[in-house]
Amino acid sequence: MSLSPKIFLTLAVGALAASPAAGQGTDQLFAWSGRLASGATFSVRHFNGPIDVRESTTDRVEFRAERRARRGDEVSFEVHDRSDGVEICSVYRDRSICDNTRRGWGRDNGPPSTRLTILLPKGVRLAASTGNGDVTVERASNDVQIRSGNGDVRIRMTAGEVDVTTGNGELDIDGATGPVRASTGNGRVSVVTSSGPVNARSGNGEIDVRMRTVQNAGDMTFSTGNGAVTVALPGNFNGEIDASTGHGEFRSDFEIRIVGRLNPRHVRGTIGSGGPRIRMSSGNGRLELRRIN
């Protein structure tokens, strides 16, 4: 029998519709604070607007929403208790984003943009999504999952797994210490991590990945429809390489024992004693495998 993480809240949870926080400035729509046990997940699902995540100096999760434009209809929020933590959902015209129903807004442009700020204490996981808006994470000490329908995602200093997807925007991940999965429909992907594995995809954009160590890592894929792919690895890396480009060339700082016929646009071979396979591909762009000294 599994036990749910213990949760301490400052508000009663359930299907609670949020009202403007009393005593706050006129631009603040809602504020919530709660204490979650280490390993619990704080989940946020938002219609429209940027999300800014910072490390908390206390043991409490702090959440606040601020209006970015004044309109007749405001966005409100629901707070739900879940077995693994707490979920906050934005609500517009009695429709919660956490409902499974999907329908258009007709002539309405949809929910107004609302800025969210989250202070995340150590040990709490984060799952945050926005339909449209940039997401910034300054520091997180546990797993981070980010989804944006349209917007850049920038993450600094994480101590867990990173899983990031945006439909259209650049991804910039610096200082990760765990596995990274990064995907964008259109935009550049840049990842710097102290250890692999890393998997990165872009429909249209450059990919630049740097791993200081690769220990017990599985196969990794780096793929873009259009753009250069650069992967930097420690000098003692051992593994397999499968690199293909429709129009471009492949360069490597590592000595590669070629398997099959030599083809400058599709290279397969072994580095050192072999190991995890690295797949690099670009529809139109150069491929580079660099050595970190």
Describe this protein's structure.
The radius of gyration is 22 Å and the shape is elongated. The protein has a domain at about 1-100 and about 105-150. It is an all-beta fold. The N and C termini lie far apart (about 50 Å). Helix content is about 0%, strand content about 50%. The protein has a 15-stranded mixed β-sheet that branches. A 13-stranded mixed β-sheet has the order 1-3-6-10-5-12-14-16-18-20-22-28-24, with no helix packed on it.
Q: Order of helices and strands, N to C? A: EEEEEEEEEEEEEEEEEEEEEEEEEEEE
Q: Give a count of the beta strands, DSSP E runs of length 2 or more.
A: 28
What about the largest sheet?
15 strands, mixed
The overall pLDDT average reads: 88
Percent of residues in beta strands:
over 45%
Keywords summarizing the entry:
single chain; 293 residues; mainly beta; 15-stranded mixed sheet; 13-stranded mixed sheet; 0% helix; 51% strand; elongated
Write the layout of secondary structure elements.
Layout: E1 7-9, E2 16-17, E3 28-36, E4 41-46, E5 51-55, E6 61-67, E7 76-82, E8 85-92, E9 95-96, E10 114-120, E11 125-130, E12 135-137, E13 144-148, E14 153-158, E15 162-166, E16 171-176, E17 180-184, E18 189-193, E19 198-202, E20 207-211, E21 220-224, E22 229-234, E23 239-245, E24 250-252, E25 256-258, E26 266-271, E27 277-282, E28 287-292
Parallel strand pairs: 4-8, 4-11, 5-10, 5-12, 11-13, 12-14, 13-15, 14-16, 15-17, 16-18, 17-19, 18-20, 19-21, 20-22, 21-27, 22-28, 23-27, 24-28
Antiparallel strand pairs: 1-3, 2-7, 3-6, 6-10, 7-8, 8-9, 23-26, 25-26
